[in-house]
Amino acid sequence: MKIVTETLSIMKEQHNDQWTDEYPQKQVFEQDVQNGALYVEEKNGQVIGSITIDQQEAAEYKPIAWQSKDSAYVFHRLLVDPKERRVGTASSLLAFAEQLALSHNVPYMKADTYSLNKGMQRFFERNGYELRGEMSFHGKNHPFYCYDKRLDEKR
């Protein structure tokens, strides 16, 4: 939760209200752990990042023009310690998520991010994710952008 608090401070500085003091709370991460969906990356025995990977799609995903109707893995709450950013931690967590999907014969990933989260948008694009549409979500004033990626196509 220390990383969440530090990330929230950065988001506030960037005028990005994707995460707030109300979301995500500790209980969200505890539920991810109970569901077997939270994965972490460690360095020297310390957690430096985490990602939640599952097949739970928000109801708001339904009207999006996804490139496939196939089942997909979805990743949520990608989180990296601010001191470990820009050294490949997020990319490592994403590569793990994609390999997990492939190991379950699901070569398709989906994710979303808040329209004010420019860094995450660039991250998606750098990693081959394509913008598929936008949705209203969590009662926010700005839309969330939805991205997807086929893992079985040559790029």
TL;DR of this structure?
This protein has 155 residues and is an alpha+beta fold. Helices cover 29% and strands 28% of the residues. Strand 3, helix 3 and strand 4 form a beta-alpha-beta unit.
How would you sum up this structure, described in words?
The protein is globular. β3 (73-80), α3 (89-103) and β4 form a beta-alpha-beta unit. It has helices at 2-13, 26-34, 89-103, 118-126; strands at residues 38-43, 46-54, 73-80, 108-114, 130-135, 144-150. Strands 1-2-3-4-6-5 form a 6-stranded mixed beta sheet. It has 4 helices and 6 strands. The protein is α+β, with helices and mostly antiparallel strands and 155 residues long.
Report Rg: 15 Å
How many runs of DSSP E, i.e. beta strands?
6
**Stretches where pLDDT falls below 50 for ≥5 residues?**
none
**Helical proportion, percent range:** 25-40%
List the helices and strands and how they pair.
Layout: H1 2-13, H2 26-34, E1 38-43, E2 46-54, E3 73-80, H3 89-103, E4 108-114, H4 118-126, E5 130-135, E6 144-150
Descriptive tags:
155 residues; alpha+beta; six-stranded mixed beta sheet; 4 helices; globular
